[in-house]
């Protein structure tokens, strides 16, 4: 999450005093960036994924599984190991995450445009978990690194190893459930981020998630822990900390574009795909030990990261800084921006004066309504005009479903990039690879066939909410453009086609058929991925969220009261471990013969 650099964070009071300076530095940097890079041409199509991985510890005697607070110990070891690997394809860049039980791994070099690159994504993801797993195995035989989008009982007492003390005195946010000791000690930004988010909004985070009402669920359902809290609503699971959100794990993909123009076009086309991919990736039905009525983490993070003041929250169109992308960027799509988001008007005018197109100027004008929640003292006053710290910092502290990343001032090799951010992480490397490869291929399909998938922003926003509904991949309809019309369509129709729309997977297959340079092995891999996506949309395979739900509902000790006990969690997470490590099949989410078998070995 966000830009990582070593340094000492300023307090919120110090940031407030420096806000005018910071904004003007950031604006200068943005203008210089734009002028320097707007005419870049012919950058390569490079791309890369980011996976956030969860550390857990099983106690088989007591049927417990806990979050393992060990990221800060593992990262220095695994980074040193990678420093010694010469073969780029086998080197991983590891990053600390907000919570100490999460680490983030990305390929050290982005993938290229050669078809064979599509064949190594899964192997690279597998390698990431292997690197950490090997270190864990040297220390213990019950510790694992897994893909878990939201740990089921995260926020319940005893959810961590080692155990922590709970209560308002153990949290800068005064959270009852999420003590500061969950935060990674080697990620100096996070504690400052939580504290400043709290100070700015002048209260602790308040996250309400509708509970899944089973036949024996208390009615109304009210969490004992918060029974005197006016903030919580009946029939909701309540989380009371930014750290609740930052403990979730996502799957992100970044695409570099050939030029500025291409990045604007692709951004606008990827925008309506955010809710589609969110829906297909849904993997988060359980929150703080309760079965919920939602399938994805997105809206939870939106509330967790919300730093708006009370006044800002009253303004209808002033959204959380963690929200669905509020606007298209191309002037020609201006009419689709039917959501009237606030902007810093003086920033917009200055950017237009500099020759930036109007709609893009408004996009950045919107960025500038946000305060930078974390600022490192060492970077407060730029020493010269070759860096873009303040702009990049501001840009990385707004968490929309897409992020436009202009080329940094101090890096001449990097082009215009788009980060695709909505997806939940999947249980297996195979599924994660399938989602990111499908998306990477879709970018080629969009550009090759000149697709137009745009629909009004208000409809994208509705789709984002619909994606959260229970079993939305099978049951809900989404607004979708095909040709000249927008219709409400089932995921099956969007992905697999209708009488008058070919469907996103068949379109991708058509593209692959036309690419004569793709070897048979890569074709086979890609077909496995497309087949997963196709079956998930058709409902013949389950999303992770639906499978997790079914697992809980059919567990022998489940009491039909929405409560996911320690024992259920233990069995569930152990099963996820078995699936992820290929020890057990799970034909409900992927057929046994689906995984591909490319391996990466350092030369
Ligand atoms: P952040 O957390 O700010 O998104 P990370 O460094 O964690 O940044 O991830 C950056 C992602 O962008 C990685 O997936 C990486 O592979 C990818 N990436 C880096 N450089 C390029 C590039 N030139 N073109 C495309 N993707 C890139
Ligand atoms: Mg991350
Ligand atoms: Mg990252
Ligand atoms: Mg980052
Ligand atoms: Mg995260
Ligand atoms: Mg990222």
UniProtKB/TrEMBL annotation:
Its EC number is 6.3.2.2. It catalyses: L-cysteine + L-glutamate + ATP = gamma-L-glutamyl-L-cysteine + ADP + phosphate + H(+). Transmembrane segments: none annotated. Pathway: Sulfur metabolism; glutathione biosynthesis; glutathione from L-cysteine and L-glutamate: step 1/2. It is an enzyme of class 6 (ligase). InterPro entries: GCS (IPR004308), Gln_synth/guanido_kin_cat_dom (IPR014746). The keyword Chloroplast does not apply. One of its GO terms (biological process) is glutathione biosynthetic process. Keywords: ATP-binding, Glutathione biosynthesis, Ligase, Nucleotide-binding. Coiled coil: none annotated. GO terms for cellular component: glutamate-cysteine ligase complex. GO terms for molecular function: ATP binding; glutamate-cysteine ligase activity. Belongs to the glutamate--cysteine ligase type 3 family. This is Glutamate--cysteine ligase. It comes from Rotaria sordida.
């Amino acid at each position: 999450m966000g830009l990582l650099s070593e340094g000492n964070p300023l307090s919120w009071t110090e940031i407030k005093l420096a806000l005018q300076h910071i904004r003007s530095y950031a604006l200068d940097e943005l203008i210089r960036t734009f002028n320097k890079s707007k005419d870049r041409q012919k950058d390569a199509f490079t791309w890369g994924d980011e996976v956030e991985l969860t550390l857990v510890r099983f106690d088989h005697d007591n049927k417990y599984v806990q979050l393992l607070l060990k990221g800060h110990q593992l990262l220095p070891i695994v980074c040193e190991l990678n420093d010694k690997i010469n073969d780029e394809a086998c080197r991983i860049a590891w990053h600390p995450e907000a919570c100490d039980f999460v680490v983030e791994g990305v390929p050290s070099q982005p993938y290229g445009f050669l078809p064979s690159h599509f064949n190594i994504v899964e192997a690279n993801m597998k390698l990431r978990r292997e690197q950490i797993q090997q270190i864990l195995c040297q220390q213990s035989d019950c510790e694992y690194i897994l893909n878990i989008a939201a740990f089921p009982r995260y926020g319940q007492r005893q959810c961590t190893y080692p155990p922590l003390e709970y209560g308002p005195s153990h949290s800068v946010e005064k959270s009852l459930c999420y003590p500061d000791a969950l935060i990674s000690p080697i990620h100096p930004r996070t504690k400052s981020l939580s504290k400043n988010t709290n100070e700015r909004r002048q209260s602790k985070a308040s996250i309400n998630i509708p509970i899944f009402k089973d036949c024996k669920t208390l009615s109304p359902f009210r969490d004992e822990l918060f029974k005197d809290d006016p903030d919580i609503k009946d029939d909701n699971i309540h989380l009371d900390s930014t750290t609740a959100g930052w403990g979730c794990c996502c799957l992100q993909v970044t695409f570099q574009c050939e030029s500025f123009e291409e990045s604007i076009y692709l951004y606008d086309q990827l925008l309506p795909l955010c809710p589609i991919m969110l829906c297909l990736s849904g993997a988060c039905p359980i929150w703080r030990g309760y079965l919920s009525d939602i399938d994805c983490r997105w809206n939870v993070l939106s509330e967790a990261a919300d730093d708006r003041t009370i006044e800002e929250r009253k303004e209808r169109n002033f959204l959380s800084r963690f929200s669905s992308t509020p606007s298209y960027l191309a002037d020609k799509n201006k009419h689709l921006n039917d959501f009237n988001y606030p902007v810093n008007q003086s920033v917009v005018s200055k950017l237009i004066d500099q020759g930036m197109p109007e709609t893009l100027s408004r996009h950045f004008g919107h960025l500038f309504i946000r305060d930078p929640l974390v600022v490192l003292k060492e970077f407060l006053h730029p020493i010269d005009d070759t860096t873009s710290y303040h702009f990049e910092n501001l840009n990385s502290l707004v968490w929309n479903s897409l992020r436009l990343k202009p080329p940094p001032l101090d890096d001449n090799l990097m082009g215009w990039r788009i980060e695709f951010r909505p997806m939940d992480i999947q249980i297996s490397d195979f599924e994660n690879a399938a989602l990111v490869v499908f998306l990477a291929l879709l970018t080629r399909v969009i550009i090759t066939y000149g697709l137009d998938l745009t629909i009004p922003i208000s409809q994208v926003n509705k789709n984002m909410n619909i994606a959260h509904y229970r079993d939305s991949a099978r049951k809900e309809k989404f607004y979708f453009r095909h040709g000249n019309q927008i219709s409400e369509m089932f995921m099956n129709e969007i992905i697999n086609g209708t009488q008058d729309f070919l469907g996103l997977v068949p379109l991708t297959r058509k593209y692959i058929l036309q690419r004569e340079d793709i070897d048979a092995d890569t074709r086979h891999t890609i077909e496995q991925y497309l087949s997963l996506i196709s079956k998930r949309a058709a409902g013949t395979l389950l999303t992770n969220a639906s499978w997790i739900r079914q697992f809980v509902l059919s567990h022998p000790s489940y009491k039909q009261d929405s409560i996911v006990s320690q024992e259920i969690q233990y069995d569930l997470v152990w099963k996820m471990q078995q699936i992820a490590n290929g020890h057990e099949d799970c034909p409900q989410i992927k057929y046994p013969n689906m995984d591909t078998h490319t391996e990466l070995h350092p030369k």
